[in-house]
């Protein structure tokens, strides 16, 4: 640990504490996730390290190294100065379709790369998507604690993730396609960016998880009248949110990457550059 110095604490959770650290030699700021040695270092932590360190992509938080102390295991990662995408939406209320498309394309690019590497994330959500802090923010996927590699691990069948983002087949307690479950979570993320609310949550009773799950299983959602989005966007969401566990007819990441309406990053980048001049 001699190579890093503490700048400040930046978060905490069930895993332990996250701290902003500085490399004494290079002066690079890094995020360090501390996990207490003992029972908390389980197979999820091992998966997180093995899977995350194998990934190198502009839209994935860069894994740097693992450091051991007498009391903790610390995962050292790239620091995303822009914070969570969730915070940005909370501050804005909701995004324009152009802004949502800008971030959605980056999300799909990062997830598609994970799938190419045979890794499904299984906990994609706004809180696990960070921003690098640049004027035209680059999205960075983080937290691979629930991830699975089809090369190293069994096919997923456990119910993991955050209820509002979980695909219907994940609740079946049978084996499911983790990659298709990731696509569903990407669709939820797009909806929240556009609407500022979760698609399957009752806004009058948001903590009623049974009702949320029932709506997910039956694919009961709608886009409010006050939210104006293109027909292409509505069609895209309709192809992502498909109830059939085999997801016959639903859209794949390959389809999403080909969808020109949601892959038009250059013009949106120029929009950001103009807005930040």
TrEMBL record:
Amino-acid positions noted as binding ATP in the UniProt annotation, renumbered to this chain: 33
Gene Ontology terms for molecular function: ATP binding; protein serine/threonine kinase activity
Pfam families recorded: Pkinase
Source organism (scientific name): Saponaria officinalis
Protein name stated in the entry: non-specific serine/threonine protein kinase
EC number(s) given by UniProt: 2.7.11.1
Catalysed transformations (reactions): L-threonyl-[protein] + ATP = O-phospho-L-threonyl-[protein] + ADP + H(+); L-seryl-[protein] + ATP = O-phospho-L-seryl-[protein] + ADP + H(+)
Any one GO biological process: response to osmotic stress
CDD domains with a match to the protein in the record: STKc_SnRK2
Keyword Kinase among record annotations: yes
